[in-house]
């Protein structure tokens, strides 16, 4: 048996992070068992049907199942006993006080403790505040069988997957961070990542960073917090651009040309959402407060973001002299394109506010409507779901764009213009060309656009 065959992996939690991670590792040649406590989700995955949308995921799932390198565990305990590397990919949702809820990590630790039948490397991939890995280590030790002397390490290997391009970011990582305090754990994780670096053609010395466990936990939160701060910064600048008739798109383009700043995450709009940035910013602020560290800069970035939906609905109300009794087409519900994930999406407070103020809404999204209907069930005539952006806009007083799907860039605007009651487009993502939209006969209003 060669060295690669000796590493058997169990991935605990098959959600937006766990499933791409498990399938990616299986595609690299490792035997991977997926452990999922949601039996309905596990059955779908075992049949080759991903429970959420991610480009390329269905094909990768079928390839993993057909090769036999990926399987969904019928017996989770047996899967944990059989594996050497146990990767924890469970949720860490936001608590009411802003901190991270670590209860799912605690439950994973209890399951691991029951199945310590030899050395295990427990890898915390779930995003959690500094100190969570030590809590997991202590929890496993305390829950182990009485009299047992469990042999295990806990390491941190954060995910940097981007929803909508998760497989690309998995197979072409810009960095791999290993937080481990034992040579054995470092060696095992380095070997697990070796075929990934070989396939990507990236030298380990340029891509792989090995550091301490707590340092790695901070790296993940600091990365997301910095990206969130960039978004809030350009949105703050957008407000000034609107007040002075300047153009935030040109401002962002110019400052992004500076290599010290870079253009990513300098896109003005209705703010960031999703299951990562809002939760991670809140958790980072909370853990800093617990340690007596002033994170007022990040608190203000959070406040700027929280204000964006209300500012957007206020702009719409001003443009229409009130939204009560008006019909609004909403294009885009997911927090970003190329995913069906609407968790903490800006669309949620915007739709809620428009309904509260008496608007009738027709919603469209290429992928997220099924999930969104669990939050906002159809309730004609005040709320309906449309099968196309054009049908959503039929007879509408305005179109609002909340997600920058390519589908909306390709709409035939000249033919749509006469089918609307009022040709207003309020672009919350600045994804359309203002000049082209105006040539089509529309009143176009972006965020921070001249």
What does this structure look like?
The chain is an alpha/beta fold and 450 residues long. It folds into three domains: 6-211, NAD(P)-binding Rossmann-like Domain (Rossmann fold, 3-Layer(aba) Sandwich), CATH 3.40.50; 221-302, N-(1-d-carboxylethyl)-l-norvaline Dehydrogenase, domain 2, CATH 1.10.1040; 309-445, NAD(P)-binding Rossmann-like Domain (Rossmann fold, 3-Layer(aba) Sandwich), CATH 3.40.50.720. The chain has helices at 18-27, 39-46, 57-67, 76-82, 103-114, 132-143, 166-171, 183-200, 204-207, 213-244, 248-256, 277-290, 296-320, 347-356, 369-375, 389-393, 406-409, 413-416, 434-439, and strands at 9-12, 32-35, 70-72, 85-88, 120-124, 152-156, 176-179, 208-211, 327-331, 360-364, 383-385, 398-401, 424-427, 443-445. α5 (103-114) runs parallel beside α6, α10 (213-244) crosses α12 (277-290) and α10 (213-244) packs parallel to α13 (296-320). The radius of gyration is 24 Å and the shape is globular. The termini are far apart. The model has no long low-confidence stretch (mean pLDDT 96).
Descriptive key words:
14 strands; 450 residues; N-(1-d-carboxylethyl)-l-norvaline Dehydrogenase, domain 2; 6-stranded parallel beta sheet; 3 domains; alpha/beta; single chain; Rossmann fold
